[in-house]
Every structure is written in structure tokens, then in C-alpha cells.
Amino acid sequence: MDRLIAYTAERIFSDHVDRGVLDAAERGEFPHALWDVVREAGLHLVGSPGSGTDDGDLYELLKLAGRHAVPLPLAEVLIANSFLDEAGLTTIAVDGVAPWGREADRVVTVEGEMSVDFDAAEDANLAGESRDRVQLRDVRRVDVPGELYERMALSRAALMAGALDRVLGMAIDYATEREQFGRPIAKFQAVQHNLAILAGEVAAARCACDGAIMSLTSADFAVTVAAAKARVGEAAGVAAEIAHQVHGAMGFTHEHSLHHFSRRLWAWRDEYGRETHWQELLGRRVASGGADSLWEFLVGVG
Amino acid sequence: MFAGLLFEPTRLPGEAEALRAEVRDFVARELPPDYWPNSDFNEGHSPEFSRRVGELGWIGMTWPKRFGGGERTFFERYVVTEELLAAGAPVSAHWIADRQSGPLLLNYGTDDQCRRYLPQIARGECFFSIGMSEPNSGSDLASVRTRADRVSGGWIVNGTKIWTTDAHRNHYIITLVRTEPPSENRHAGLSQLLIDLRGEGVTVRPIKNLAGGEDFNEVVFEDCFVGDDDVVGEPGNGWTQVTSELGYERSGPERFLSAFRVLVEFVRAVGDEPAPGEAALIGRLASHLMTLRRMSISVAGMLQKGSSPVVESALVKSLGNDFEKLLGELVRLQAPTGQVGLEKCLRQTLLHSPSFTLRGGTREILRGVIARGLGLR
Ligand SMILES: Cc1cc2nc3c(=O)[nH]c(=O)nc-3n(C[C@H](O)[C@H](O)[C@H](O)COP(=O)(O)OP(=O)(O)OC[C@H]3O[C@@H](n4cnc5c(N)ncnc54)[C@H](O)[C@@H]3O)c2cc1C
């Protein structure tokens, strides 16, 4: 990813996404100040035509957003702006649900409908992220990319990869600081082994996600997304479980910020197809080629 | 990003991919018609097959030409090894020499040693074993007691190695020994000696495993003389050398493909229109395999750049070995009955599965290496 974008995004997210902003967003308050900063920096156009950045940058930015639990509909905005002319805040709806629908200027559905005239009723996922129920009125067709659902699924994989990285960091820090029996709990082998498993899942998630990002323009994109969403989703469950175990009761409090990430992992693994959806799809593709082409298929998709 | 998680996205370059078809043709031609494919790198010892692999230049691929190597990339080697494993070819004879003994000699051996052994290895005519474990030294490798005492012109070795894969049919063993008495620094005073397995003072006794096979051995050294020209690297530098060897040993495709044939046979058994649960299982396993491959290829890229990815390798092996065990267990629960090929693979895999998370460093030891990489110890 472009270093300057990464640096800018990292700085903005670190400076402007804090407890207060996250909690307010969960109460239903749109983070206007953050949105303004993001727009001033041009981050809402990363990956859009003429921006000098590509889809790869877009997904790298989403990893960073996941690392910071950015409470904006960034995946929707970026992906919409990658194929539509930018016009305020555009969100993307699937099954009648759109992140920050009630704040949006425009709603596009994954099926390729668009409207600027719609109702939006407040709702949220289990991470408290806005997932409003939208009803479009004056609908018109738009050309959406052929694999928009896959692109959205990959956005969730990228967000998870970022959040996973953060969760690992939090667990390592906590284990190094928290003392019991006269020493940091990181010194206990059982804790070390759990963290090693967590690290393995985080690395695997990152590699699975990167694989799909590398295949953005290839004919195998859908298949690599299936593998990525399934594998990252699996990692999310294991990682959240271990991170909470390491954090003890403190991690179960509302006070501690681990839940900002663990709840998002639990939510995102279900959005745009949970693991079994993508596993089945991938499995059917593999099986359709027959046993003796299985290997060829696996190495063919890279 | 954390140490040990630097898996750069890496694609196999075209010249590596180009080898795939050649390897497939070769295996299709060379596998005896009654051979039952097995993707476990420890299974299937065939000197004839290995010689044929050597003739094609597929052993010692990354080594210098003057030592019989091919001066090719780690990516090209990666493609050859994964294709051989996926096809279930009998690779065990040359595997260790190609993967780690050769590179060890290249890194630490003398010019003379390289000239003596590497060309033979590359031709697929000379096979090596690993002499690390002992009856009382498994995970705690630095505690080895096999000792070598200085005599004029060389060393006299006494002691016992155990679990030595293929020692009864290989030519040489690179043996980790104490050349100085134990001291405060547990890692000091260790050395590696290259010993002829058929030489005087060496007794090899096969040990039957629970699957009924005789692949690993006990190797006893009694006043075995080893000349100075068969010391690998500097005397006393054994620990550093052995550790570097493990980097090569841990990250390859053999660490997640051992049970691969089970998946192939499962797909055959359920046919091209699997039930949803069957499809999901195939997809889940495929998503793991695709990911492990990416990680392993990324490590090949690090080796190609000359770095020694110790933590990354441990991570790939650890994830990979767990996957190998999971594969068999999950398929077992959904396996249709009366499928002879699948049944055979499942049995074979289950019987060998305990070894997956032991050989090459146990799961617990690997997790310790990863934890160190994370800065926890
Ligand atoms: C099929 C096979 C082939 C092999 N081939 C070779 C070969 O060719 N050459 C060779 O040198 N060796 C070989 N080995 C030996 C292998 O390297 C050892 O089995 C391995 O290092 C573990 O040693 P051990 O079996 O003595 O178990 P131990 O070290 O006694 O361990 C027993 C159990 O205790 C655990 N344990 C030990 N120490 C710790 C610790 N500090 N923290 C937590 N848990 C711990 C281990 O993880 C394991 O679960 C082979 C083994 C197998 C199974």
C-alpha cells in the first residue's frame, strides 16, 4: 500500500478513534468529526478511479480500519466510490440492511439497485455497529461490479485481519503486564501456548486475506474470496476466544476495550456469508472438478 | 506487525510454475502401476525412484552447479517438492539429504566435503539421516550425551541415537555429539560429525512403529572413529548449525500435506455433487490448504532472500501439523462406508498421525519457539 496513505490513515485513526467516539457511535451518534477528517484527507476515495490508488490499496486501508474499529461505513463508502461517481455518503445494502443507512445520501444494493429516496430504521449488529433497515422507494438500476457480493465479503475479511492483529497485540501486552503468582502471566507456558495458537490464526488470516487481495483482477477472485472469508472467519472465532481467556475478567468488562474488537470479529464473520456459506461454495467448486483434479485446482488458484 | 508474522504475499514465479507439468508427467510415468500413493514424506523409500528424480536435476536444485546443483530458486524447488508430495510419490530416500543435510554442508562444510557428498546427493545416489534424538534427549536436544573424544587425526564416538529415520537404508548420518564436557552454557561444546552408517563401530537396529512399519532406528556408536575431514563446520559450533538446519526442516509443504490423499479420496467418494455438509467440509479443508500453501511459499521467498525465518517456519509447521491431524478426523466423521480407497487412506493416516506433531520438533516445542518470537520468553 502507498506509504503516505498508510501513514495518514494510521495517524487519523489513532488520533480520532477513541473510546468516546466508539461508545457514541454505539449509542447511534454518527461520528461527524471523524468523517470530516477522513474526507479532508481524501481517504474516502482510496481505490476510486482517478485517485491514483487501486483496489489493493482499498483493502489495505480496510485492514487499518479494522485495526482501529473505525465506526464509519468505510467498506461501503470505498467500494461504492470505486464504481460510482462520488456523491456524499453512499452505503451498500444487503438483505435490506445498510451500515449507517439513516446518515447516507445514497443507498446501493448488492443486486445493483440505487436510490436517494429511502427510509432507514435504526438497527445494529452485535458489535453495536449501525446496520440500519432500509426501504428504497424511487429505485433505479446501476452497473455494479460483477462480483460485488464477493468484494463486500472480502471487505469483512480485511476488517477482520486488521482487528485480529490488534487483538493479538492487546493479548500480548496484557499478558506481559498482568502479574499473578509473582510474575507476568506471559511467563506461564499455558498462556504462551495459547498466544502462539492465536498468533498462528492471525498469520493465517492475514495470508488468506492477502491471497484474495492478490487475486482481485484474476478469474479466480471468487474462489480466493471464498477461501479467505471462510478461513479468516474461522480464525476470528479462535482468536476472540483466546484473547478473552488471556484477559480474564477484565476483558469481560465494558470498561476494557477488548470487546470493541472481539464483538466486531463475531459480527463480521457472519456478515456477507458465514464460514459454512463460503466453505460449501468452495467445496462444490472443488468437487465438481473431481478427485484427480483437486490438486490442480488448489495450486491453480494460487 | 509482530515478529514472526512477516509473511509477505508471495507468488510463485513463472519459471517455477513451468516445472509443474514436467513433474506431473514424470510421476505419471515413473510410479509403478501397483504403487499406492502416500503424501507422507516419511513413507515410500525407493532408491530407484530417487535416482530418477536426481537424473532430472530435481535434487539439490538450489545448490551451486560446481557441486552438482542446479542453481535454481527456492520457488522452483518448492514446486517440485509439493508436486511430488501431492502425487504421493516415494520420496523418503532422498528427502532429508535434499532438504537439510545438503544445505547444512553448503553452509558450514568444507569445500572438500561439498565436493565429496553434494554431487552424489544431487544424483539421487547418496542418502542421509538425522542424528539428533537420543533415548534421554528428545525435545531437550542440548542434553545429548553421545560423545566424541579427541584422538590423533579425528574423534572416537560413543553413544546412542534413536528414532533415526531410514538409518537402516541410508548411507550417512550427521550426528550431533558432545565434543566438550557439559558446562554452564548448555549450548557450548556440541559438534556435528558426518558418519558412514555402514562403517565400523556403528550398529543400526530398526524399531517397529505402531503401524507395523520399520522406518526409524536405534543407532549405536561404539568406539567409532571419525576423521577430522568429516567434522561438519567448527567443532563447538554444533548448536548454531543444528538450529539453522531446523529452519529448512520446518516450513516445507511436507508439514501440511501428510494427510492430503485422504482429502483426494474423500472427494472421489462423495462424487461431483456432494451434499451440503460434505461440500462444506471439502471447502473448509481446501481453505486451510490454500492458506498454508501461501504461508509456506512466503517462507520459501524468505529462504530465497537468504534470511533464516525460524519463527515463521515454526508457525507454518505448527499450523500445518494440526491441520494434518484435523483433516483425517473430520473426514472420518463424514466418510461414506464401503469406499475402499478412502478407508485405506484414513487408516494409514490415523496410524501415522501421532508422529505428525512429534517429528521435527513437537507441537509444544514449536509453540515455545513462536512464543519467544512474540517476545513472551
Ligand atoms: C516418525 C518419527 C521420525 C523421527 N525421525 C527422527 C530422525 O530421523 N532423527 C532424529 O534425530 N529424531 C527423529 N525423531 C525424533 C523426534 O525429533 C522426537 O520425537 C522429538 O524431538 C520429541 O522427542 P521425544 O520423542 O523424546 O519426546 P519428549 O521430548 O520426551 O517429549 C514428550 C512430550 O513432552 C512434551 N515436552 C517436552 N519438553 C517440553 C517442554 N519444555 N514444554 C512442554 N512440553 C514439553 C513434548 O512436547 C511431548 O509432548 C523422529 C520422531 C518420529 C515420531
Spell out the helices and strands of chain B N to C. HHHHHHEEEEEEEEHHHHHH
Q: Provide the spatial order of strands within the biggest beta sheet of chain B.
A: 1-4-5-8
Measured distance between first and last alpha carbons of chain A? 21 Å
Total DSSP helices of chain B = 12
Number of DSSP-assigned strands of chain A? 9
User: What is the CA-atom radius of gyration of chain A, in angstroms?
Assistant: 20 Å
CATH architectural grouping of the largest domain in chain B: Up-down Bundle
Integer tally of domains of chain B: 3
CATH homologous superfamily (4th level) name of the largest domain in chain A: Butyryl-CoA Dehydrogenase, subunit A, domain 3
Strand order of the largest sheet of chain A: 1-3-4-7
CATH topology grouping of the largest domain in chain A: Butyryl-CoA Dehydrogenase, subunit A, domain 3
What are the segments of chain A in which pLDDT stays under 50 over at least 5 consecutive residues? none
* Low-confidence parts of chain B: none
Number of domains of chain A: 2
CATH architecture of the largest domain in chain A, by name, is Up-down Bundle
- By CATH, the superfamily of the largest domain in chain B comes out as Butyryl-CoA Dehydrogenase, subunit A, domain 3
Describe the global form of chain B.
Answer: globular
The distinct ligands, each listed once, are:
flavin-adenine dinucleotide
As a percent range, the share of helical residues of chain B equals 40-55%
What is the overall pLDDT average of chain A? 97
